[in-house]
């Protein structure tokens, strides 16, 4: 069987390797050029393709006549998308004689759309996962081939959850591939009423809400921690970025907004609902923050 693969990021690397390990001939890989303005903390799909002697292209827009001609010339049985960042339009999807499939980083139909892992942590979910599904012109709503759940522990950050989802994606593809190749897959329609669509996030979306409760603040911080841009607040002393917190009970005070204070050699983030977080890592105007002379209000 022959496939064309659109892929990027760690999920793209592992799923491409799973296809090759499963005996699929990958005729063409379409990926992205790395953006020099982006923190590239993940592995390279392009490098894996070149290591295996697979033709690879990096178009800015995959839905051009030139890219379509390359994909058609490959005469693929399957088309796969693994964390590729652009939507593929109908002409591309129709190139694959046996179907087009996408790997999504959530338990569909929940968290359709962009950055599903970050959104799941922000909302305090206790599990997420990876879902292989049929691709169509609408994002993340095709019939499900298979999915696997992974836990989100109370202090897991997005990087840790992403690592779990990457393994789940590889396992889902590897165990689904034999039935797909044999034409014996049993598809399950999604009930879209059981989930919602979420958009992408920009660094500015990391601004901390000073009126949020302690649980919300903790989830927000861990969802945006390294390698993501971080949860931040502007204070009278400069920009505060909080990278890691632990839940630490109650501070027992009525506050009009969240504040940061120092006590017993540690930093504490006190929320308006009475909850308190121990701050394990933070920076103020880019420098590590370990002590404060006075409490610092978050604006």
Automatic annotation (TrEMBL):
Position of the signal peptide: none
One Pfam family cited in the UniProt record for this chain: Formyl_trans_N
InterPro entries: Formyl_trans_C, Formyl_transf_N, Formyl_transf_N_sf, Formyl_transferase-like_C_sf
Formyl transferase N-terminal domain segment(s): 20-174
Annotated Formyl transferase C-terminal domain residues: 202-286
Coiled-coil parts of chain: none
Annotated protein name in UniProt: Formyltransferase
């Amino acid at each position: 069987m022959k496939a064309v693969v659109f892929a990027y990021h760690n999920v793209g690397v592992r799923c491409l390797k799973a296809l090759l390990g499963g005996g699929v001939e990958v005729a063409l890989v379409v990926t992205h050029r790395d953006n020099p303005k982006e923190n590239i903390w993940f592995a390279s799909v392009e490098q894996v393709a070149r290591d295996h002697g697979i033709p690879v292209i990096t178009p800015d827009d995959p839905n051009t006549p030139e890219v379509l001609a390359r994909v058609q010339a490959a005469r693929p049985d399957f088309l796969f998308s693994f964390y590729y960042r652009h939507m593929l339009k109908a002409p591309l999807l129709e190139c694959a004689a046996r179907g087009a499939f996408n790997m999504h980083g959530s338990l569909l139909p929940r968290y359709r759309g962009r950055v599903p892992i970050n959104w799941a942590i922000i909302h305090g979910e206790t599990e997420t996962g990876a879902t292989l599904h049929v691709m169509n012109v609408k994002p993340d709503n095709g019939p499900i081939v298979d999915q696997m759940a992974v836990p989100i522990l109370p202090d897991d950050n997005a990087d840790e959850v992403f690592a779990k989802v990457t393994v789940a994606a590889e396992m889902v593809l590897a165990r689904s591939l034999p039935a797909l190749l044999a034409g014996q897959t049993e598809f399950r329609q999604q009930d879209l009423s059981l989930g919602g669509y979420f958009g992408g996030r920009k660094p500015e979306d990391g601004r901390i809400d000073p009126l949020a409760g302690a649980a919300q603040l903790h989830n927000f911080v861990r969802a945006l921690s390294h390698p993501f841009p971080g949860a931040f607040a502007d204070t009278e002393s400069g920009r505060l970025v909080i990278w890691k917190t632990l839940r630490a009970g109650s501070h027992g005070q009525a506050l009009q907004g969240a504040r940061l204070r120092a006590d017993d050699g540690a930093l504490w983030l006190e929320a308006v609902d009475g909850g308190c977080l121990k701050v394990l890592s933070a920076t103020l105007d880019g420098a590590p923050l370990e002590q404060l002379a006075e409490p610092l209000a978050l604006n």
